[in-house]
Write a structure and sequence with these properties.
The chain is of the alpha/beta class. It has 20 helices and twelve strands. The protein has helices at residues 4-7, 9-35, 49-54, 106-109, 119-129, 146-155, 173-177, 179-184, 224-227, 230-238, 241-247, 264-274, 281-288, 296-302, 308-317, 329-332, 342-360, 373-381, 389-405, 431-453, and strands at residues 40-41, 63-67, 74-78, 98-104, 134-140, 164-169, 200-204, 210-214, 260-261, 293-294, 364-369, 412-413. A hairpin with a 6-residue loop joins strand 2 and strand 3. The longest helix is centred in the first third of the chain and has 27 residues, at 9-35.
Length: 465
């Protein structure tokens, strides 16, 4: 009787080679995963322990990779023993230190700075150099809202039994908290898939009561729509060491390079800013090159007779930056905070819950707003907001409201006295900006807690965590 090879020699060879390739890929994947794991960037993953609790997160001692979008300096770190970008921390207070727990988002995570330059690290060093035995424990992740910070306080923060809790506030917290409400709102422009970003959501009842609900959309179904979506591609890349490395070659260009591209949002932004006439040479050029890269020579030729300000605006807006994908005409003029809005009321309810939990362990609560004039100036520099007093005041109105309302709730607010400088190519705070943030918090703490801190002197054999 003839063998399979004799009957189908070509097919047999194809199957043998395919099996060998699959086996080789499997071996390489395991080898890389065990000995040379690729660092995970920015958000972490939704599948690990912290991810299952908060929507995304890192494992303990996980390798992470971050970079400065201006200099392209790359920072490789490992998360601490609990999966946070901080020093190793222990629930038991082994040195009898005064403990400050900081809850925050990407500013507290230190998205574009080396670990030693994060403001919480700088703050801890300043306090210890001043002679106080104080730990500044950081629990933060990029893109977190107040709701996730509340969850982190419940699941882990309270275990440290902190004496003081600092909640770092950003204005985008308001939308981040109400993500589920906004995604399901009639006529919403927010993609429906946003509903699945977190394993929970908080909402307000008609009687203004805060209610937590499990999010059934968090575990995305294995449907044909998911298998053919961009989300599935990201899913595969996140869980394959080989694909992570291959993905690096698909990056269009280094963020430090200045590349010009006519994106849809950029075209719309230039029409809006310059009130372009459809018959103008610039409008025709942008329309013809929509979706493609353009050179400075091409831009200069079409702007040969334009004034200096127009040239400046066009060159700035046509830079191929991720930030342009999140601009709209509606966002150009920031609105003054509506204190009756659902987002603001939900935010106040979440902060009230954080304060209640702090009270159960006799800890104070302080809010540190990371939103400041330097952030507004960053938006102006990219022509995302108009450079007017009204626009600036509207942009800062949530911070003004915090300064007015929080003290009435028994919550302190850190004063912004120094500029929190942003990188040119990204709205996150630079090394110098982190130093300013640490200085502002340091000054606030000494003006309000110095007499308390004096009861916590640094031990003679200084503790080094």
């Amino acid at each position: 009787m003839s063998s399979l090879f004799e009957k189908h020699p070509v097919l047999t060879l194809i199957l043998i080679n395919a099996a060998a390739i699959v086996f080789l890929v499997f071996i390489v994947e395991i080898f890389l995963r065990v000995f040379y794991p690729a660092p995970v960037a920015t958000f972490g993953l939704p599948s690990n322990h912290n991810g299952s609790l908060y929507g995304w997160g890192f494992d303990p001692k996980q390798l992470i990779k971050l970079s400065d979008p201006d200099s392209c300096n790359v920072y490789i770190d490992r998360t601490n023993n609990h999966g946070w970008r901080d020093l190793d921390r222990h629930y038991q207070n082994r040195t009898g230190a005064y403990r400050i727990l900081v809850l925050g988002d990407s500013h507290t995570f230190g998205l574009v700075v080396p670990a030693k330059a994060i403001y919480t690290r700088i703050l801890e060093k300043k306090l210890r150099d001043a002679g106080y035995n104080i730990e500044v424990i950081s629990i933060a992740l990029s893109s977190w809202g107040t709701d996730q910070e509340l969850e982190a306080l419940i699941h882990e923060g309270l275990l440290y039994k902190p004496n003081l809790i600092i909640y770092q506030f950003s204005t985008n917290d308001l939308g981040d908290n109400a993500y589920y409400y906004l995604a399901t709102k009639l006529g919403s422009k927010i993609p429906p898939q946003l509903k699945g970003y977190k394993p929970f959501y908080y909402e307000l009842t008609d009687s203004n009561e805060l209610v937590r609900k499990n999010n059934s959309y968090f575990h995305r179904p294995w449907t044909w729509g998911f298998l053919t979506s961009h989300d599935f591609a990201k899913f595969c890349i996140n869980y394959s060491e080989i694909l992570k490395r291959l993905y690096q070659f698909t990056v269009r260009h280094s963020p430090c390079e200045t590349v010009y591209k006519v994106g849809a949002n950029q075209f719309d932004q230039l029409q809006f800013l310059l009130n372009l006439d459809r018959s103008s040479s610039l409008y025709k050029f942008l329309q013809m090159r929509l979706g493609s890269e353009v050179s400075t020579d091409e831009i200069n030729r079409v702007l040969k007779t334009a004034d200096a300000q127009t040239k400046k605006i066009v060159l700035r807006v046509l830079e191929d930056r991720l930030l342009h994908e999140y601009w709209s005409r509606e966002s150009y003029n920031p609105k003054k905070l509506d204190t009756s809005s659902y987002e603001w009321r939900l935010f106040l309810a979440l902060v009230t819950k954080i304060r209640q939990l702090a009270n159960t362990i006799h800890a104070d609560l302080v809010i540190f707003p990371a939103t400041d004039e330097a952030e507004f100036e960053w938006h102006v520099s990219w022509y995302r907001y108009p450079n007017t007093v009204e626009a600036k005041e509207n942009f800062l109105s949530p911070v003004r409201a915090l300064c007015e309302i929080m003290p009435k709730m028994g919550i302190g607010v850190v004063d912004n006295t120094l500029p929190y400088y942003r990188t040119r190519n990204d709205p996150h705070v630079t090394v110098a900006g982190n130093e300013s943030m640490a200085e502002d918090i340091f000054n606030y703490l000494l003006s309000h807690y110095k007499s308390v801190f004096e009861n916590y002197p640094v031990p003679s054999a200084a503790f080094k965590p």
